[in-house]
Amino acid sequence: MGIDFQGRVAIVTGAGGGLGRQHALALAKRGAKVLVNDLGGAVDGSGGTVGAAQAVVDEIRAAGGEALANGASVTDFAAVEAMVQQAIDAWGRVDILVNNAGILRDKSFAKMSMDDFRLVVDVHLMGAANCCKAVWPHMVAQQYGRIVMTTSSTGLYGNFGQANYGAAKLAQVGLMQTLAIEGAKYNIHVNALAPTAATRMTEGLMPQEVLDALKPEAVVPAMLVLAHESAPTRSILCAGAGTFEAAHITLTQGIHLGIGADVPEQLAARLAEVTERAGEQVPQSGAAQGTNEVGRALAARA
To answer: How many CB atoms lie within 10 A of CB 63?
Structure first.
């Protein structure tokens, strides 16, 4: 196999079922030693048992691979640190982190409690941040790391009834952007995957025939590419039903209007020029916005 993970150690969160299970099985099949993390709770995050993670570990071992089970909640930083140490103690390193753990508490924003908003953000965003923070010093020390965030089309483009989920998922992209910049000198590549897959989190949200087409296995190739040593960095890959796309956060060329009493009226009248996408760029960092703005301002004075 061209994409193999012999000698690599991977941690996959939320890997007791669905997409995470497929990620763990695929990494193990291609040679990685895998720590399978799963709280074992319900879709809304309630409850918990290590049984789901252990079942996946048993599958991997039955196929001749190496794996360990872990039932930590990604919202508990001390437990996450212990999870990472479990992998270090067993295998001496951590090369790959796939942040896949998540929950849903869907309601329209008008009906959503702030407790439900906060919990979803805590699991998806703070859970990913906790895991990244725990593996980061090890990846820096070994001068190697591959981190895959799990974002969503809901975060990138919105979806009715998922304000909490969408906010958390796009926040993971923001985390990816900065960690990729900071990790570059340590050969730590950080990317995001936006999957469309039929899992227990999507049951009831789509017609059955659509769910049948969206097998979780179809997303896995994108994860493998992003987790491999040849992976890009700061990429957002979308995957579902065997189709693969890329999403980009871009910056248009814009126009310079200067400072004046009538600038709001000018902006309103010329908004189509501001949003014109011809010549847009994918910035290498947040500094690109300021560079473009100041450059245009100085050019206008010349």
So the answer is: 11
Cα separation, 224 vs 96, whole angstroms: 10
Mean pLDDT rounded to a whole number for the chain: 94
- Give the model confidence (pLDDT) of 67-111 as tens digits: 999 999 999 999 999 999 999 999 999 999 999 999 999 999 999
Token pair of 220 as six digits: 């896995």
Phi, psi of 287, rounded to the nearest 5 degrees:
-65, -20
Q: Which two tokens stand for residue 232?
A: 């890009």
Q: Which of 202, 203, 122 is nearest to 167 (CA)?
A: 122
Which pLDDT belongs to residue 50? 86
HSE toward the beta carbon, residue 253, CA cutoff 13 A: 7
Q: What is the mean pLDDT of residues 36-59?
A: 82
Alpha helices, H only, 92-191: 114-121, 127-142, 153-157, 163-183
Q: What mean pLDDT is predicted for residues 264-291?
A: 98
Residues forming a β-bridge with 194: 238
Q: Are 114 and 92 in contact (CB under 8 A)?
A: no
Q: 287-290: long-range contacts at Cβ-Cβ below 8 A with a sequence spacing of 24 or more?
A: 288/251, 289/251
What is the rounded distance in angstroms from the CA atom of residue 193 to the CA atom of residue 172?
Answer: 10
Ramachandran sector of residue 287 (left: φ over 0; alpha: ψ -120 to 50; beta: rest):
alpha
Radius of gyration of the chain (CA): 21
Inter-CA distances, 137 with 34, 150, 170, 189, Å: 19, 21, 25, 14
Token representation of residue 213: 């087409």
Which residues are tagged catalytic?
165
Other Cβ atoms within 10 Å of 165 Cβ, number = 24
Token match 């070994």: residue? 142
Distance CA 102, CA 124 (A): 5
Cα–Cα dist 58/25, whole Å: 11
- Is residue 132's pLDDT more than 60? yes
Contact 220, 198 (CB under 8 A): no
